[in-house]
Amino acid sequence: MALIMTQLPDTSSLHPVSRELGRLFDRAGHELSLVGGPVRDLLLGRDALDLDFTTDASPDQTLAIIRDWADAHWEIGREFGTIGMRKAGMQLEVTTYRAEDYDPDSRKPTVAFGDDLTEDLRRRDFTVNAMALRLPDMELVDPFGGVKDLAAGVLRTPGTPEDSFTDDPLRMMRAARFTSQLGLDVVEPVREAMTAMAPRLEIVSAERVREELVKLICGAQPRRGVELMVETGLAEIVLPEVPALQLETDAAHHHKDVYQHSLTVMEQAAEKETGPDGPVPAPDFALRFAALMHDVGKPATRRFEPSGAVSFRHHEVVGAKITRRRMKALRFDNETIKRVTRLVELHMRFYGYGEAGWTDSAVRRYVRDAGDELERLHRLTRSDVTTRNRRKAARLAAHYDELERRIDQLAEQEQLEAVRPELDGQQIMAVLGVPPGPVVGRAYKFLLEMRLDEGAVGEDVARERLLTWAREKGVVAS
To answer: What GO annotations for molecular function exist for this entry (predicted)?
Structure first.
């Protein structure tokens, strides 16, 4: 296919190192083009922050060209034709034209270097990423109609989607991710191929799948990305708990559509994120993912009551366990797993507050149990209200407003975020005359419970109460 070239209208946001590097390769007799996502972003009027280049130069030739120019360089990706470098504070990667062949049963590509830009672009995932900007002349190379597809808001593959997804099954996840990030619609042949080939995603490493999932959830329209995963069967491989939320209903047992409810909660949670200086800067993966997963315990806990109602008792506890297992399978780090599962486990704690009322002790426990996730829990709990009954929604919002006011008041009074017993471990040992050991831990827990129930009572009272507790428990002689 012949190259189709047009002049890119505006490259003013492109960092000057791009032209400089292009001139360097041109003087050495080699081609250099900005390629992929950065070109797409320029066409969308966005800044091209990640600069990826492709060239007909071999890795050795690239090293010879940039060695004295770059501030630093590295060869970690040399096996795949990639040389990395840093210049003027920018991190750049230059990759030799490639023609990859994949073993259908392998996770890793075999790499063959090429000498033709069009063939290099042909092996890329989607037409909107199969465009290049020739340097230093800034000519747009678009052999597969990426500009047209971008304008139409559609996602196509340069060749057949079957060949593309056979080459790298992770591209099916990328399709869902671009639906979320860029609002693009996959064309029907791509959707059909994704549906037919979804099981091939099982050969892709959990780490690569996880990274695409995080980008999807953090996209501008995560609902669309998740829906595409569910509709094509990708979610059955990556997040089977989500399509399982599509619970069957019948005329006798009515309850809300848990799947659609969860998608709405995720959308509403994203809307409640803050600016960069706020407590939950957007996009926040933990909040959004907890919102998506908060009801995954419902299918396992659904019960049809004699009254005709449907119950999901303790679904939040079951859901937290299910979420933990899934996140471990996707190789999430422990801190992220802890953060998300804590939110899932606590998302029902608030309900009943308005009717029953909470003591100061209950409010303290709510804050203590939420810990660092309190701001996220506020947003998740508010987002979990999707009822169309305006009166009920207003009542729940008012109750949560009141709870937040009480939390703020108690925090001012007691520095609630750092509630501790009024005696530390050393003081406990001195009062009881015991060495370090389990007794100290039990005493500390007793004093913490007292602190949560009664607030600050002072060290003298705490000592008296501790001695009384110790005598009752037989820890010290009466």
So the answer is: CCA tRNA nucleotidyltransferase activity; metal ion binding; nucleotide binding; tRNA binding
